[in-house]
Amino acid sequence: KPKDIQFKIIYTEKTKVGKTSLIMSLVSEEFPDEVPLRAEEITIPADVTPERVPTHIVDYSEAEQSDEQLYQEISKANVICIVYSVNNKKSIEKVSMVSLCAHNERLFCRVPLILVGNKSDLVEHSSMETILPIMNQYQDIETCVECSAKNLKNISELFYYAQKAVLHPTGPLYCPEEKE
Ligand code: GTP
Ligand code: MG
Fold first, then answer.
1. pLDDT (tens digit, 9 = 90+) per residue, 137-179?
2. Which atom of ligand 1 lies nearest, measured to the CA of 122?
3. Do the Cβ atoms of 80 and 57 come closer than 8 Å?
4. In terms of Cα–Cα distance, which of 22, 63, 10, 4 is closest to 154?
5. Cα 102 to Cα 118: distance, rounded to the nearest angstrom
6. ipTM for the assembly
7. What radius of gyration do the chain's Cα atoms show?
8. Would you say the CB of residue 61 lies under 6 angstroms from ligand 1?
9. What is the per-residue pLDDT for 105?
10. Distance from Cα 9 to the centre of ligand 2, integer Å
11. Whose CA is nearest to atom 2 of ligand 1?
């Protein structure tokens, strides 16, 4: 069992898919009206996490971070959330490119990926039809979830899935000796 979990939220497009809002909603249990470009790294203490492991949540901002910094963060991560916006077809299409890029940058270990479709409050239809072919294409994608930072739907579930992907992966993803 890892001592703690590096939980990265990344997305390499400029579109405002709601990465920072998701983190703030999880932490404060309410939707923030205004968010910075990038949230400070947050550590959730073990006793309030479902799996009892301290978990660091790391935001990513294309405006504030270089590609080099992104790759460094990816190499330290135990689980990566790739966030898209369910009301933006373009951001969904980009998901496959982003996961491919993350895949190539992981040098020694394969890290579980979670596809996160945010802003589910804005649409009536699920994006799963678009997402399923991508999921089938990349076996590193552990799971996908549609959520809303705005009405807090599936926010704590997302966090639980991320912990679970690290601690109880369905495939041979986690290599403890490389991630120490
Ligand atoms: P960058 O850091 O600029 O890449 O953006 P981001 O991905 O961190 O998105 P951010 O959290 O800044 O949110 C972008 C916009 O989307 C803001 O106006 C948020 O209020 C809005 N937003 C975020 N999540 C939701 C959601 O679940 N539903 C709705 N309706 N709006 C949301
Ligand atoms: Mg942001």
1. 777 788 899 999 999 999 999 988 988 888 887 755 444 444 4
2. 30
3. no
4. 22
5. 20
6. 0.99
7. 15
8. yes
9. 58
10. 10
11. 37
Give the CA distances from residue 163 to residues 2, 29, 46, 65, 142, in Å, rounded to whole numbers and listed in that order: 11, 18, 11, 25, 11
Q: What share of the chain is helix, strand, coil (3-state, %, to 5)?
A: 40, 20, 40
Map residue 116 onto helix, strand or coil.
strand
**Measured between alpha carbons, how far is 142 from 162 in angstroms, rounded to an integer?**
9
Atom of ligand 1 nearest to the CA of 83: 7
**Spatial contact of 171 and 138, defined as CB atoms under 8 Å apart:** no
- Give, in degrees to the nearest 5, the angle at Cα 104 between 66 and 67: 5
Dig out the tokens for 177 from the structure: 């000796």
Contact 9, 37 (CB under 8 A): no
45 vs 5: CA distance, rounded Å: 11
The SS3 call for residue 127 is coil
What token pair was written down for 142? Answer: 């552990």
Shortest-distance Cα residue to atom 5 of ligand 1? 16
Output the pTM of the full model: 0.87
